[in-house]
Each structure stands twice: as C-alpha cells, then as structure tokens.
C-alpha cells in the first residue's frame, strides 16, 4: 500500500508540470501572435478626429463704478472729563512775635563840592623881576659838576598878603635835585602884589611860571 501511494503522487506532480508548460506556451503565443493581430485590427477601425480649439470668450467689460456716495464724518467723541485733584491749602503757623524787619539804612549822600572861588577882579602880580628869584649861586653843586640842566614849570599858591604859601612842579626838568631847588627857593624869594576881589579886598590867587637852570659860564 505504501508503494502504490508513492507512485500516484509522482504521476500527479508530473501532470501538473506538463499542464503549466502548456498554459505558458499558449499564453506566449496569444501575446506575440494572436494579440498583435487583434491590436492591428482595432487600430485600423479607429477614425482620426481633429479637435479644434474654441476661441476664448471675449473679455467682459468691467462693471461701472458705483455712484459717489456722501462720506459721512466720523463720530465726534467727547474727551474724558478732567479730574481735578483738590489742592490742600498750606497750613499757616502763627508766630507769637513777628521777626524783626531789617531796613537797610541808605548811605549818606556825599557833601556837595565847595563852590569854585570867585574870580579876582585883579590877579596877583610879582613884585620885581621873576628872573631875580634864582641866581647862579643857587645852582646845585652836584648838578653843576655833572653838567645837568633843564627847565622847571611851577605853580605858586599866593595868600591875601602876597606871600607864597605852596609850590608845585607842573613840568619836571628831568632831575630831582633841580626840581627840589626850584620849589625850595621860590616860596622864600618870590613876593607878589595880592589879588583883589570885586570890592577891592585882597584874596588868594595862583601864579604859573617857568625857571630854566643853565650852567654858569
């Protein structure tokens, strides 16, 4: 029994292989030969149709603009109310005694200048020649040795009695010893006829002059 089953199984396997080969050969023949025949026949029956492109539709005109509409103004918005912050009044402190008030004392005005002296009716005039007030013997010895010379301008203050009360150098000789000798000798030697006022009373006056110091020959 076992041998018989083995033989039947081998025969069935061979039969299946043969059937598969036959189907493969038929399929190949159908694809290569018979299939191409039917394909050619179907291609001959097809009609070639030219498809024409339809022209594009005309452009549509744009719609007319809408009529002008009045522009409504924006709504008016009222501003928010202003909030006022209450301000607290400053506290006033009472002082039992008011502080002293400093009032600056104005500086006194300077006294007015004295009125200018009245012009004399007649000026003071020297008595004798002014050139005699100084001689060669009055020449300072050092200035003479150093051979220094010059002209000194002076102003004399004359009292109501005709005497010289002061002497001022108005222009220097350039040498201090010559200027000093001028104002030292003139008050001693110069004499004047005093000036007089309108009523004839004597009064003070001034006299301006010059002295030239020359080396003695």
Keyword list:
217 residues; alpha+beta; three-stranded antiparallel β-sheet; 7 strands
Describe the protein in words.
The structure is a single chain. By secondary structure, the protein is α+β, with helices and mostly antiparallel strands. It is about 30% helix and about 15% strand. The protein is built from three helices and seven strands. A three-stranded antiparallel β-sheet has the order 3-2-7, covered by helices on one side. The N terminus is likely disordered.
Write the layout of secondary structure elements.
Layout: H1 2-44, E1 125-126, H2 141-145, E2 150-158, E3 164-171, H3 176-189, E4 192-193, E5 195-196, E6 202-203, E7 205-213
Antiparallel strand pairs: 1-4, 2-3, 2-7, 5-6
Give a short summary of the structure:
This protein has 3 helices and 7 strands.
Q: What structural class results from the helix and strand content?
A: alpha+beta
What global shape is seen?
A: elongated
What string gives the helices and strands in order? Answer: HEHEEHEEEE
Portion in helices: 25-40%
Which spans have pLDDT < 50 for at least 5 consecutive residues? 1-7
How many strands in all?
7
Q: What amount of the residues lies in strands?
A: 15-25%
In whole angstroms, how far apart are the ends? Answer: 200 Å
Based on CA atoms alone, the radius of gyration comes out at 77 Å
Provide mean pLDDT, rounded.
78
């Amino acid at each position: 029994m076992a041998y018989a089953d083995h033989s039947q199984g081998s025969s069935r396997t061979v039969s299946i292989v043969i059937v598969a080969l036959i189907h493969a050969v038929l399929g190949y023949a159908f694809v290569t030969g018979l299939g191409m025949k039917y394909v050619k026949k179907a291609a001959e029956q097809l009609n070639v149709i030219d498809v024409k492109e339809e022209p594009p539709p005309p452009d549509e005109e744009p719609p007319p603009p809408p009529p002008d509409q009045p522009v409504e103004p924006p709504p008016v918005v009222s501003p928010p109310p202003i909030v006022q912050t209450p301000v607290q009044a400053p506290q006033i402190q009472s002082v039992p005694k008011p502080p002293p008030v400093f009032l600056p004392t104005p500086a006194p005005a300077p006294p007015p200048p004295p009125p200018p002296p009245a012009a004399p009716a007649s000026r003071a005039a020297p008595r004798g020649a002014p050139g005699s007030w100084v001689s060669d013997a009055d020449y300072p010895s050092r200035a003479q040795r150093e051979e220094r010379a010059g002209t000194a301008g002076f102003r004399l203050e004359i009292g109501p009695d005709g005497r010289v009360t002061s002497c001022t150098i108005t222009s220097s000789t350039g040498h201090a010893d010559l200027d000093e000798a001028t104002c030292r000798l003139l008050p001693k030697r110069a004499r004047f006829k005093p000036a007089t006022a309108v009523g004839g009373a004597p009064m003070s006056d001034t006299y301006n002059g010059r002295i030239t110091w020359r080396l003695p020959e």
